[in-house]
């Protein structure tokens, strides 16, 4: 995260490859389910044995004896509807919820986040010299309407995408944050409104950032978890 | 001192060896033992050729035969691992091959070997014993012939002939960086013996065979699981962690990679050969042939098959996607996730209106081309939606339908046991517009989720 600060985001998870190296983020939407982005995974039926999800710790590379750390193997990957670029990861066992591990709410189906809603992104990705690169960093971003976003991005934003407003100082997601949450505060609850997708430039000044709009895929998420 | 007795054995996981005619194996040894103790017991017995290790009882059963013995067969049994002495299993030799106990019985010129116990057509002085392994008419080297195992031939005109069994280091050559090497060399270039991949001593390491099933980290053979310059292994010498193995380079032309792409990448992008040369966030990549700002071992000349040209994004090490060293000193590597993944979806046929809840066509495959399961079937998946529950939906055969009005279109249960359901290879009809979501507003209610202790946000650790 560029322009963020070390912070607490108990639903943000680190996805680790077989060498234990963090490569993408994700969000805990149910004790045994994490949502992330398709671009982080080689295929929809890839062998994820020995990949794991790490949660409960603020450290990018916690010590093996970190009492808060939970490391849960990934059991299964399910690809989302074609245009969504989302994936659901089923964990080998449920995460234990506590002060440092919490579920994030899913929005109502087809819910549109009002403009200026306060949101935040979180991740263990590149910091560009800001924040603290050994810790989870969090940055605040306000929602921008699709109409205004389209004016800035020449009509390229789809309904299935969600924008945040450009800030003067560069704030945004970067390498290693992809798949992580855009969490917005609604009625005192944090809701997963967007998923960070790979973008060409980290925290480009005066340009909106674009996320996958989760509310369009809530029916799919619930169906996968139910079935 | 740190050599494991298991080094003399090849392991077959979840396997039991059964003999149909020979006298039964010894009883399972009741005394709990670990695999190394079992190997030690088998090694000292001349008539022990293999052993089962029973994971439930932590005990072993010594066996006087191997899977190459007559009238034996192997079967899957998750409770057992089968360890067989390498000398009996390998079809290549080490040094002069005096320990070779394989079952080749023809010479290099194709002549059949004479039984060692017979003196005809050629009389000779060798008497079979358990120690010299002169059994049947198998090639052996009882006199330490430097040309390796040999035998007397059934041709009266040719008394004996070498069997031409190759040395293990020559039997399989190395292509590219040897990531596909599956040969049987178990010593390093300095002659040190390799440590088994399934052991963590003398060197602790991350390459557990079960974590890397596609790398075939068998026994203690040289392998290249980490995209090094060539096959290597951890050594049994506590003072030397790992070393490369001396193997023959293939002289034949390297095969063309089948899955090369230029505008998108497939799987992990190891075959990506396009010209994108910036990271996802737009940082220019460092040239592969440069060592600044980042020093690295991915020199183009050492990785001839990886196409490390210019500063293009590549995946020479099996990472998650094409990547590069960046030109920023503070950022060593970064993925090039902005390169699109090649679509793995099949061509669609037909279209549906709305959500496709009225679709009554006969398409019966998913977007990935997997055949749909019949709605009335109960395997490979037990459906939660059946024709009886939705008679109006006409859930016939295995045709794509949308009985639950899924907003992403018609779907089906699939015949792939690992994919319960998926969307079908049908597209939304052109001009069929779904209502925009951007004008509606919902009343929002949430339950337990989305709460966090805000004090932690402020509290340092």
Largest interface, counted by CB within 8 Å of the partner chain's CB: A-B, 72 and 58 residues
Order of helices and strands of chain B: EEHEEEEHEEHEEEEEEEEH
Compute the number of strand runs of chain A. Answer: 13
Figure out the total of helices of chain A: 2
Mass-distribution shape of chain B? extended
Q: Roughly how many Å apart are the termini of chain B? A: 46 Å
| Major sheet characteristics of chain B | 4 strands, antiparallel
Instruction: Strand order, main sheet of chain A: write it out.
Output: 8-9-10-13-12-11
What is the percent of helical residues of chain A?
under 10%
Strand content of chain B: 5-15%
Notes on the protein architecture:
The complex is a heterodimer of chains A (227) and B (461). By secondary structure, chain A is mainly β. Chain A is built from two helices and 13 strands. Chain A has helices spanning 146-152, 218-226, and strands at residues 5-6, 12-16, 22-30, 33-37, 52-55, 70-79, 86-91, 118-123, 137-144, 161-164, 181-186, 189-196, 209-213. In chain A, 58% of the residues are buried. Chain B is mainly beta and 461 residues long. Helices cover 5% and strands 13% of the residues of chain B. In chain B, the strands form seven sheets. Chain B has a four-stranded antiparallel β-sheet. Chain B is extended, with a radius of gyration of 31 Å. Chains A and B meet through strand 3, strand 12 and helix 2 of A and loops of B.
Short description:
The complex is a heterodimer of chains A (227) and B (461). Chain A contains two helices and 13 strands. Chain A has helices at residues 146-152, 218-226, and strands spanning 5-6, 12-16, 22-30, 33-37, 52-55, 70-79, 86-91, 118-123, 137-144, 161-164, 181-186, 189-196, 209-213.
Question: Which keywords apply here?
Answer:
heterodimer; A: 227 residues; mainly beta; six-stranded antiparallel β-barrel; 2 helices; 34% strand; B: 461 residues; two-stranded antiparallel ribbon; 4 helices
